[in-house]
Design a protein that fits this description.
There is one protein chain. Helices cover about 55% and strands about 10% of the residues. It is α/β, with parallel strands linked by helices. It has 4 domains: about 100 residues, Conserved hypothetical protein from pyrococcus furiosus pfu- 392566-001, ParB domain (Alpha-Beta Complex), CATH 3.90.1530.30; about 70 residues, no CATH class; about 60 residues, no CATH class; about 70 residues, no CATH class. A hairpin with a 7-residue loop joins strand 3 and strand 4. The longest helix is centred in the middle third of the chain and has 18 residues.
């Protein structure tokens, strides 16, 4: 990123000057995001001990305040300013940058968080703050590689997705952050209307699903909503799901996979009935304990799978006898007729 800092007449290096910590707005341009994104008070004790021993070796970077405010806005160096106040220092070395407010925000972000990888929810909040709250243009964010800094590829589509996800609201983003949901999950979530979003949040608060399963569940809910013109609340109120969701909270939290299975069945009702018939036919084969049969997820592919896992030679003998006896049986013919 190019340095848009104000240089002195000798060129090359911005001028460093002493400034009172009280003349610095220590929350800087990021405001409450300091604590939310990095953690308030991170390593304060270690930094204070270092400054007590060695002094402040790196100047804090500032921009001039606007209007009647006589303080400087902090771009980088919040920890140093906090430590200086804690140690009672009269001045800290400062460097005044001649950059726009938006460019100062981007510079501060790049310098403060070079190794940070945000969750999708954190990145959505930060993107919204940068564009909406601080007026940083999307083209500027892309040219500085901010999406890549957040842990996403630096494309316009990713930035648009982040800003879309930011509109989900604080409660949903907090839940998504706690579960570590990917950007794909948040973008799917954002497609629903406000009422559906709330119903989805209620589901995901009560049912534990990882990012991948949650992505699948949202895809199924969206497909059913569009296909059947049914609100999410009505889908979740169907007897197959409500019987799972109306139980004790502690028990329901362990039923994420059961909910996903039910939704798969509701999405593909023909396959669900076919699977039940297949399972009944497989049970009539009296499979040996070392063997299992399966089918293509949508019963396409023209065959069945047969897998074995042996723990001793006796298992192999039992399986061999089973295959000889089952070949040509009515139960085997029934099984093959279903695929």
């Amino acid at each position: 990123m190019s340095d848009c800092s104000k240089h002195n007449d000798s060129g090359g290096t911005p001028e460093v000057f002493p400034v009172s910590p009280d003349r610095i707005d220590s929350d800087g341009l990021f405001g409450a995001l300091w604590g939310r994104l990095r953690g308030d008070g991170t390593d304060d004790d270690l930094l204070a001990a270092s400054i007590r021993r060695h002094g402040i070796l790196e100047p804090v970077k500032l921009i001039a305040a606007e209007g009647d405010d006589t303080r400087y806005h902090l771009v980088t160096g919040r920890g140093r300013v906090r430590a200086a106040k804690r140690l009672g220092l009269m001045t800290v070395p400062g460097m005044l940058l001649d950059v726009t407010r938006g460019d100062a925000v981007v510079r501060g972000l790049m310098e403060h968080y070079p190794d940070r990888r945000y969750t999708a929810a954190q990145a959505a909040v930060l993107s919204d703050r940068l564009e909406g709250g601080l007026g940083v243009e999307r083209s500027r964010l892309l040219s500085c590689g901010v999406p890549a800094l957040m842990g996403f590829s630096a494309t316009e589509r990713v930035l648009d997705d982040l800003l879309t996800a930011a509109g989900l609201g604080a409660d949903i983003l907090f839940l998504a952050h706690g579960r570590g949901y990917s950007l794909r999950v948040l973008v799917r979530w954002a497609r629903f209307d406000a009422e559906d979003r709330r119903d989805i949040a209620g589901l995901l608060r009560r049912v534990r699903l990882g990012s991948g399963p949650a992505d699948e569940v949202l895809g199924i809910l969206w497909e059913m909503k569009v296909r059947d013109n049914t609100p999410v609340g009505d889908i979740l109120g169907l007897p197959e799901l409500s019987s799972l969701l109306d139980g004790d909270d502690g028990e329901v939290l362990r039923r994420g996979e059961a909910v996903r299975t039910v939704l798969r069945g509701l999405r593909y009702p023909r396959f669900t009935a076919q699977k039940a018939a297949f399972d009944r036919a497989a049970a009539s084969l009296s499979l040996p304990r070392s063997a299992a049969v399966d089918h293509h997820p949508t019963f396409e592919g023209g065959g069945i799978g047969f897998s074995c896992r042996f723990s001793d030679p006796g298992d192999m003998e039992e399986t061999a006898r089973f295959l000889i006896e089952a070949a040509g049986s009515d139960a085997a013919k029934k099984l093959f007729s279903l695929v």
